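Notebook entry, structure prediction.
Reason for the run: the old model in the group folder had no record of what sequence produced it. Starting over properly, with the input documented here first.
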Amino acid sequence: MATNGPLADLVAEIPTYPIRRQNIEVAAPEKATLIDRVASLVTERYDASSITTLDGVRIETETGWMLIRASGTQPLVRLTAEARTDDDVERLLAEAENLVATARSEE
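New structure, fully documented this time:
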């Protein structure tokens, strides 16, 4: 800090990217099954090394990432997407919505 300046100035230099969030209402008992179906779908569509299932289903792409997870306290599935551009983040959020819709149609 003595040589690089105030922490606030250093943090201001870190690039930020667009992030979007959306909630989808689901019946409480359906949440876990829906996330399992989403996990199956993403293994068919994405490289396994880009998928993490620690807390929901997270998919890394060349332009950003998306997370589909069940709320721990509400009857919701939460979608989050972050990317380098507004167009990319909207595309990723739409893909997450599509994955949930497809998983729901398999009921």
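Summary: The beta strands are 19-25, 51-52, 57-60, 64-70, 76-83.
The old model has been moved to the deprecated folder.
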